[in-house]
Amino acid sequence: MNQIVELKDVTVSYRENVALKNISLNIEKGSFVAVIGPNGAGKTTLLTAINGIGNILSGSVKVFGLDINSRIRREIGYVPQSLSIDPRSPISVRDVVMIGRSSKIGLFRYPNRKDIRIIESAIELVGIKELSHRPVGHLSCGEQQKVALARALAQQPDIMLLDEPTSNLDLRSQKEIIDLIDKIYQEKELTIIFVTHILSHIPASCREVIFMKRGCIIWSGGVDKALNEKLLSDLYDCPIKEIKKEYV
Amino acid sequence: MFEILQYKFIQNAIIASFFGGAGCGIIGVWIIMTRIPFVGVAMSHAAFAGAIFGLLFQVNPLLMAIIFSLISAALIGPVAERTDLDPNVSLGIIFSVLLGIAFLGMGLLKGPKTEALNFIWGNILLLSRGDLKLLIIIVLSIFLFLILLFKEIQAILFNREIARAVGIPEKAIFYAMIFLSGMTVALSLNTIGGLLIFSLIINPPSAAYQLTYNLKTMFFLSAFFGVCSCMLGLLFSYIFNIPSGAVIIIVSSVIFGLSFIFSPKRRVKQYESS
Question: How far is B220 from B217, CA to CA, in rounded Å?
């Protein structure tokens, strides 16, 4: 087995609230895993535990078999939930994508031709070339999510952590982002961990699902087995018929 | 009028205006973009309190201002990190404590308080050559820091969490920014004064923010507005024989007002709402 992410008995706490309780999880290289659960289940905290920006109370997190540090973070593309960006902010789309490349370029260095090419290709892959000189705060939520994906791609990461990339988007933008994530997975052969609370938003390439509830992993398995009435009812504490209307 | 330029103290004042204005303009962009303006207030009052205690204990006031500023910078860094309290609330508390300490020092000072009052209003014409050299060194360090680490600073100003997530050593760079801000504030104390310097940190970048969508241009405009505020303030202070620090702040406020009125960003907003 080629484990790229290994969590062992990880507990994360924010003040008096325990966000993750003794989570153990192994993720194989090249896999596409969806993490599903209701609000407050600890899905986002799981991602921040993996990339080391969350405060781990106990347990261990290994990525590529190593403890997380800023060097390892360069290999992890992280797309957080949609950011609130001031429309007057003096940062362009290209500047934001460049942020993803910054740590790979290194301190006290300027981007060379190769870096510029990588940034261009990330911008082209997500289809925002015509927006690249616009202020990022002027874009719609869907476009800003594409910029966030391009920024993560500019890192040329081995792992991508996607935190509800379809939240706050209209139906068309949701489909565009889901299709784009599928395309990125197929073209780049990355390991992707995708967080959502809506089952129908899981991209087609995803084969594994983890159900989280109140800081614990309550179930994991194949996508086909996840569409189980009892499992879903238990996950959302709500009869499946009501869940189906909105979430499946 | 130009014969006045031959005097050493006027030459010092012009050089201090240039470097102090540019330095405050640049650190102001950091403070405005990270949305913690109370950093500027807290640090300026720390420097002010330090200078007062320097006078009280007969230690070099500038040295004490630097020490107090650096202590406040060391406090401010972790405070700004905390998520359980709004940074502007905790910085506001630090500011009020420092103001209390400064006025306690003022109360304890015996005899005439003219020198202490200079730290409130500032007196650019009393700047020593040694103070000026220190100011130049720290502002040149800020320029160098900004040029060498521009892409990392841009990432931090955009979003600190993302900067950390992509593997930038954001904490070290953010703390260095706070440290350099503290030094600039302390060294500008004589020029502008402890109560007024906050405006010179906030007004020029706020004016620049109204005019551009490019961060490099914002840094340039903010530094330019800072220099203009200090130079014009100095000129008006000489012509009308009025306190330089106060005029510098009024000029910087007028620049902000004009930038706000003529802001292309504001015009877009009006167009969208019509």
Answer: 5
State the residue range of the domain holding A211. 1-75+157-248
Q: Is residue A233's pLDDT more than 60?
A: yes
What was the pLDDT predicted at B206? Answer: 96
Residues A150 and A161 placed together within one structural domain of the fold: no
Contacts of B265 in chain A (CB under 8 A): 87-88
Could you tell me the residue range of the domain that residue B178 belongs to?
2-273
- Whether residue A92 and residue B212 make contact (CB cut-off 8 A), yes or no, is no
Query: Distance, in angstroms, between A73 CA and closest chain B CA?
Result: 5
Same domain, A131 and A21: no
For residue A80, being part of any structural domain is answered with no
- Say whether both A165 and A151 belong to one domain: no
A156-172: string of b/e by CB count within 10 Å (b at 16+)? bbbbbbbbbbbbebeee
Q: Are residues A62 and A183 in the same domain?
A: yes
CA angle B63–B67–B70, rounded 5-degree value: 135
- CA angle centred on A215, ends A210 and A218, rounded to 5°: 40
Rounded to 5 degrees, φ, ψ at A192 are -120, 130
Which of B170, B213, B259, B266 to substitute to test the interface with A, most A CBs within 10 Å? B213
Segment A112-122, tens digit of pLDDT: 999 999 999 99
Residue numbers in A near B154 (CB within 8 A): 91, 95, 98-99
Q: Chain A residues with CB inside 8 Å of B161's CB?
A: 53, 80
Domain tally, chain B: 1
The domain boundary residue, chosen from A109, A134, A156: A156
* B16-35: pLDDT as tens digits: 999 999 999 999 999 999 88
Across the interface, of B83, B159, B218, the residue whose CB is closest to A83 is: B159
> Greater confidence, A182 or B35?
A182
What ipTM score was computed for the predicted complex, to two decimals?
Answer: 0.92
Asked if residue A152 and residue A106 are part of one domain, the reply reads yes
Q: Name chain B contacts of A103, Cβ cutoff 8 Å.
A: 166-168
CATH number, domain of A213, equals 3.40.50.300
Which residue shows structure tokens 């790979």?
A104
Total structural domains within chain A: 2
Q: Which of A126, A156, A186 is the last residue of a domain?
A: A156
Of B84, B151, B164, the CB nearest to A53: B164
Give pLDDT tens digits for B123-147. Answer: 787 788 888 999 999 999 999 999 9
